[in-house]
Amino acid sequence: MDYKKGNIFNPRFEADVRESASVAHIYGQNIAAAESFTSDGYRDGAWVFSPAVLKPTADAAMAAGLNRFVIHTSPHQPVDGKVPGLGLGKYGQWFDRHQTWADQARSWTDYLSRSCYLLQQGRFVADVAYYYGEDNNATGIMLKKVPALPYGYNYDYFSPSVIRDLAKADNGELTVPSGMRYKVLMLDANVKHMSIDILRKIKEFADAGIIICGAKP
User: Fold this and answer.
1) Is the distance from CB of 12 to CB of 142 less than 8 angstroms?
2) What integer is the mean pLDDT of 65-94?
């Protein structure tokens, strides 16, 4: 896969883009994309969104690791006299040439593209590896909440395969082959039950001096 892709809604849900960005960080890929600004036109009033409404969602997504926006939706509008034009039913942010602020959209798209370019040049820094457990995914567990971390600390989600096959203890920190390093392993409440091979790896990390907090298996 060339790059990982998630989905962000407006109003936003962070977990999906955070999960995709975590995969990119762990496997050493510099692109973390997401179908962006998806909305329910009836419920959320998406047809009247402007950059002023969308920017907080964009900024939160970039803070969570997103560095490529795939705007949803922007269908081709071949007809001048039919407005607002073609759409995807009630879903989408309605970003096309019939939008009332289309002539002023350049500064908005420049902001997104320049921010993403800069983020693609750097390396994400996370303090915490957040293990969400087995038989689920981070988006399903964390859809309407975020890990209870102190303000100012960042994190990546760890899947069972990352715990079992990739993560290593090195000088009191967890490392993965991409070069990412994490000072703390945090266990979600979903880890109350875990398989023996994962439990053995957790014990191995503890014996190596890794700081582990959260729910007790």
Assistant:
1) no
2) 84
CA nearest to 60, candidates 24, 15, 124, 113: 15
Give the residue from 208, 188, 92 showing the smallest Cα distance to 135: 188
Measured CA to CA, the distance from residue 39 to residue 198 in angstroms comes to: 38
Structure tokens given for 128: 């915490």
Residues in the chain: 217
Read off the pLDDT of residues 144-181 as tens digits, 9 standing for 90 and up.
677 888 888 999 999 999 999 999 999 999 999 999 99
Q: Is the predicted pLDDT of residue 19 greater than 80, yes or no? A: yes
Task: Return the H-helix or E-strand segment holding 44.
Answer: helix 41-44
β-bridge partners, 156: 129
Pairing of the two strands 168-170 and 173-175 = antiparallel
Q: What is the mean pLDDT of residues 61-71?
A: 92
Q: Does the pLDDT at position 14 exceed 60?
A: yes
Q: Residue 206: what are its φ and ψ, rounded to 5°? A: -60, -45
Tokens at 146, concatenated: 């975020």
Q: Residue 40 gets which letter from DSSP?
A: B
